[in-house]
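Narrative progress, year one. The postdoctoral researcher (J.K.) led the effort to move from monomer predictions toward full complexes, under supervision of the PI. The following entry was the first complex the group processed end to end, covering 769 residues in total.
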Amino acid sequence: MEKLFTVASSPHAHQKQNVQSIMRDVVIALIPAFLVGTYLFGLKALWTTLLCVLSCVAFEAIWQKFTHQKVTITDLSAVVTGMLLAFNLPADIPIYVPIVGSFVAIILAKQMFGGIGQNFINPALAARAFLLAAYPTAMTNFQKPERFMGSAPVTNWDATSAASAVDTLSGATPLVAFKLGDSSYMPSLMDAFLGNIGGCLGEVCALALLLGGLYLIYRKVISWHIPVCYLGTLFIVTMLFSGHGLYESFTSLFLGGAMLGAFFMATDYTTTPMTHKGQILFAVMAGIIAGVIRIFGGYPEGVSYSILLMNLAVPLIDKFMKPVRFGGGKA
Amino acid sequence: MKLLSFKKGIHPKYYKELTRDKTIELLMPKDELVYPMQQHIGSPCKPIVKKGDHVLVGQKIGEETGYVCAPIYSTVSGIVKAVEERLNFQGMQVLSVVVVNDYTYEEVPHLQEAPFRDYKTLTKEEIVEIVKEAGLVGMGGATFPTHIKLSPPAHKIIKHIIINGAECEPYLTSDHRIMLEEGTCIIDGIKILLHMFSEATASIGIEDNKKDAISHLKELCQGEPKIEVEVLETKYPQGSEKHLIYAITGKEVPSGKLPADIGAIVLNIDSVVAIWRAVTKHRPIMRRIVTVSGKGVDKPSNFKVRLGMSYRELLEAAGWDERRTVRIISGGPMMGTALSSVDVPVGKGTSAILCLTAEEIGEYEMSNCIRCGRCVEACAMRLVPNTLHQAALNKDDETFMAYHGMDCIECGSCSYVCPARRPIVQTIRTEKNRIRRK
């Protein structure tokens, strides 16, 4: 018998994107914010990020080896989780916090449920929520940036620092000031946009996150639906109920984790609905929850809880927001 | 002008430039021709010749065994070498008639002296009978017998005759070349159809990546009030019967129903030419245009060949490089069949032979579904492919039916876009067959 050719079921063509290339694009999209974070907060930001990435990848590899599964760290999803986790932390954080966070993200939130694609909540956000409950002081110990983008801001940095008598902003982050309705502590729109504010190491620079987000949309890794609906809803809720004006409400979109959440957390494939209709509902609901927590809740920031809560609603959304099938009539 | 289209679907890489401008080239057969007794959907034909018989071009060698069947004709003159099981392109052993070519191409007498037949003198029933006798099947690849399509129940009034020139599968250019080179036959064929269905108008749907064919046919249609050329968006699966009807008429064929239920008939470009040849020139189906393409051939071509020729003859004429080729496909890459051997005969449904390299296939190791929703965005039937895939893997018939898995047209868009390389359509196809067999 002569040579036989390989047979396979059709289709015999595939698009180029694969899981690894998608994750690589997310890593690339996160790099501007990472660079700005390192510039603003110094090498501590770099070490914290590296530690998160390394421990996430290590936990994934160890777990998969230990449970006799195929080691899938080359899909880069653990790298993304590590970077997102680090972006949620203050730059100057005790060394054990990122390691515990990585354990929660990779082992408890992701691998326990079957690994990539099987987790029901966003691993990085689950870890952040856990750390915020476990180490509240360390997690909110926001330091003043070492450097600034452009000229130093004209807000009350020194007043804040003096008031708390340490070189940190733990007393009054911009979001706390926003919540209290104290506009004098609010940074200017430009400072908030560039990242001349205190906060988590990867969250502060809205510009860098926006660049990354636009890159992901350009590369067709994410669609516009979730970020636009999420930020739009958050803006409207803030406008209507916070008592602040247009300017402060708009500025508040660049504070806290809103940008990071909108472009990188709420767009996580696994924990968001599959249809655009479902994604819009998801994003609008999450935007409402985030706004409500920011304005009325016990915490100054509501982005992570809004996304986590809506993660839980995803199976329901997917079940009830199926597309109307072709030839199925208007169901 | 807004292009006609449907919702969702995909934009695969087309590779049509490989053969788009290649004129149809006549390729003559070699020594041996093989005629499988099943080249259509339906019951297989019964061979009516035996070893040692002398056959002529256009002589019936396989006879219908039922209504859903289409007879088979010899395409050369020569001696029947055997009536035995031979491999077909689907990898199955099928009872086949093997004819040794005597290179005289002597035709049966009634073909030699056949006068030109004017369709206007024929009734609808007579035309259907001619089409049936000529062995015509859908030339797009589905190979459904044409005479059945042309005889919808009397109470279903046909309003739209839709000619499928979408050719949405990547690589394929045979219909494109036919539109350019045999345009008048298409128009005359459509006139026959309009004669049969007096209440209908005809539309030729062509994707806008075939601009030359669009302008050529538009020119030919001038002065034909009942024939319209419709420009379609280049999108896969635009040539799917249901999606083509939707793009052109704006009507959805209800789930489980046929196009005739909403007054439409869809025929492939080459089928129309075949109808014209059968009606006016008495020719049964004996030839076809085949695109031979892919990065595994040095000279991609559009060949006009006689049915029964070996795939190997076509591949050799196209400069096939066996070392580069990792997979050989009969048909297009999205819905075609992979071949284990190239020693199989060209049949009525052979629209293309593709020699694909590893780079073109783009395979990658499978991983977990990451729920990215790309398959949901791609599915032209607007189903939820990954849920169906999971249900199929679990043999969970209840979920599969609840998510309307049987509506899947198996176009393969879901598997094409899947970044985790899940075999989505493959498992759905298997599950559909399993449920049908129950």
